[in-house]
Batch of 2 targets.
Target 1
Amino acid sequence: MLRLGFVTTNPNKLREAQLVVSRYGIELYPVTVRKIEIQSDSLEEIAVYAAKKAFEEVRQPLIVEDAGLFIDALNGFPGPYSSYVYRTIGVRGVLKLMEGVENRRARFVAVVALALSLDRIEVFRGVVEGTISYEPRGSGGFGFDPIFVPEGFDKTFAEMSTEEKCAVSHRARAFEAMARWLRENVQTLKPSTST
Amino acid sequence: MLRLGFVTTNPNKLREAQLVVSRYGIELYPVTVRKIEIQSDSLEEIAVYAAKKAFEEVRQPLIVEDAGLFIDALNGFPGPYSSYVYRTIGVRGVLKLMEGVENRRARFVAVVALALSLDRIEVFRGVVEGTISYEPRGSGGFGFDPIFVPEGFDKTFAEMSTEEKCAVSHRARAFEAMARWLRENVQTLKPSTST
């Protein structure tokens, strides 16, 4: 069993991530150190900076995740600032911006930065393509989940169970990539089935 | 004459600030070190962090300015992320969010952080109250200037000359406060009239 600190105050993120990595024998525990997020158009840059700063504080292997909803017709808005935009103009504001807009293409992107030491930070990316719905639907998930319909589905993320969402979500894909990498690169890590 | 580094890549900001502080015998020069802006709802926090990090790099007295447009009906949006919002959804996007909204109250806020040493950072704030117009007007200024009408005027910031804008703007007020503070607190600084 590998234990990794997860710098987050969002219990939804922790739950979604744990669901994915537990299959690989990884256990996540919340790290309460302050997450220093810089302003950048690049989720990678934000996550790497935050992971570095957090590692400097706690000196334990840890991960930082950053995610955002990128809407093509809005030039990528709200992107890295999705949580601020959610707190201010919200789902209704984004739907208003999309009124009369035919091109509904969007993607959720998640980046996980894994800090193993001060100068060793690995980065993993997960993407899910989709479209912006015309009205909010569903009560699951969080953030912009009620208006995001992943490709190949009729439901929004908020209409899916955590398990369904984790089968396709950006966050799940990023954490899956990290878990696979750890299995291949960390000697002490074994799949949970063999423990 | 006091020379101060200004960490900015925006020539408009430099010009507006210089116009204000030159009356106090202060000359600003651009500092090209990377400006590290954190994500925060507080302009003060963003400016102080950036000033500290820049000072660590260049070890010269320097200033960092951060500003934003805070719209009451949008819970303060776009706030500290005004420049990102401007680059993505732009003036048209903000006007669309304000369609049918009666409460047009907004304010521009600027914060100047002056780093004099690693542990001495002074902070100055400038605010201008106003309203969001119904359509963009004027071609001066930059950013959201074409839709901001300062209190007591019929014109938007973009319809004013740099001199007119500097008589009332948030940025001018923050820099004015800094210049006055420097005059009172820095021995070597004299008003330019006496040099």
Note: Chain B has six helices and seven strands.
Target 2
Amino acid sequence: MARYLVTGSAGFIGSAVARRLIESGNEVITIDNLSTGHKEIIPKGVTFIHGNCQDISVIEKLYTSRLEAIVHIAGQSSGEISFDDPVYDLQTNAQSTLLLLKLAQKIGCKKFVYASSMSVYGEQPDRPTAEDAITLPKSFYAVGKIASENYLRIFSQFGITTTSLRLFNVYGPGQNMENLRQGMVSIFLAQAINQKHIHVKGSKDRYRDLVYIEDVVDAFLRSLDRVDNEFNVLNVATGIKTTVEKLILKICQYLPFKPTMEYSGSTPGDQFGIYGDSIKILQVLGWKPRYSLDDGLRAMVEWALQNK
Amino acid sequence: MARYLVTGSAGFIGSAVARRLIESGNEVITIDNLSTGHKEIIPKGVTFIHGNCQDISVIEKLYTSRLEAIVHIAGQSSGEISFDDPVYDLQTNAQSTLLLLKLAQKIGCKKFVYASSMSVYGEQPDRPTAEDAITLPKSFYAVGKIASENYLRIFSQFGITTTSLRLFNVYGPGQNMENLRQGMVSIFLAQAINQKHIHVKGSKDRYRDLVYIEDVVDAFLRSLDRVDNEFNVLNVATGIKTTVEKLILKICQYLPFKPTMEYSGSTPGDQFGIYGDSIKILQVLGWKPRYSLDDGLRAMVEWALQNK
């Protein structure tokens, strides 16, 4: 049993990571500003600090804590939304990481795992993108993620084992079905269920690498076992390319009705296509996905229909 | 004749760029917080706004201006100092760029030139480093510079021609001889003149690419002629590798006395060795250095002795 800080536990991924840690008998503290998350989502037993991770007055509350590890997941999580207020995005997605790394250094916490994103890559050639690809961010969100990764590299010099997980398109039960600007699977599924109509902003030929939430949680937990005092950046990806068209066909396959379809417009900062090379994470963490897209989507559609 | 905003004109590089623009009959506005710069250094004729470029209240003063171009040079300029207050560094070196790019977008300014740094590269193999090398920043300063470059890439989508100049070790008359934590040539020269003793924090085998201030100003002016609405990142480098040992020998050669020497300690975030590939800037801007290291150092030592 150990004590962890998992920021953003009122959100989709943070709550799933916190829950698994609690279930294994650990103590979990979270910081969340509830800007997109909901208090009810925070798993039972988690100590909740309401506030922004980019505010030093919030971080100071932990100056006397002992933490086994910091898992930083909080942050504005949409490339599209980052165009609304780029300065806020820099603060929530980069300044926050800096303050939390300084906290780790101050209190002698030796492990730090960060939720980065495949968005750091921007447009890449049509092949699995590996971690050593040049980063070509297209959104303010992605700029902050890169800055955070660079902070992790610097703090690894101070004896902290830092892992940056570049999450590809995460989906699954628990995803926010109300935010129609974040999460490709949840956006399409929410539209299908609520309006019986799916409006795709962009080409049906765009493609993504879809990773199921439980597999993502596994990647976080395995990162917590690293002890080498080094910085590592790892794709959390399946290596499988799924087009928007194929994704929607599969979603519809598990729905008990047939939504109408519309393709028009585009999304600022959107990547055309990206999927990940997953060799490094297998080598470093022994991680590979356990859930197929069909299994994952079936579970998610079922959950969404039950919770609408 | 046109109107330019040149931030940081109370500093070494900013004042040199502003002076050249004024001499060619242009109008120049500057923003400077005088944190390390001096008001007297601002060239005559420049309109001075005292403040931080990361403060929206300062930037708002230009909301009704018409500007031919924005040249953003202001910012904390030392990798070493960035370890003192990393959050301030993020604000001065990244948030400032974001606000100035938004200003350009708002007022229809179509050109933006940014003073980036060779520090974005971190440790690289012992060969001329080209612009497509992977960035491995070792200081908080360098993290902010990378974030700024990424902002420039994003804003080029909005019809702004953006150029990021990765300045290698700039030296020459006008360099701050009082800040002993910034500028390799000025640090050694100031020590030699003031204490007749040079204390080198780090190995004598470290190496750098030394670029003379007048050549650097040329690179800025040539960047102002770009009109392609694209983002370009360019090394401002000679392609010549100079070791710390050789640099000090040359400085001493032009001094009328012989300083004593001491090698001990190290500098946080310091790169061991770096020199730049200068092919791209020749292709894109037709730029190549006009001053040899001997000519440049002779002029600088002469200036420093006259102004001590």
Note: Chain B has two domains: 3-171+211-239+276-290, 184-206+241-270+294-306.
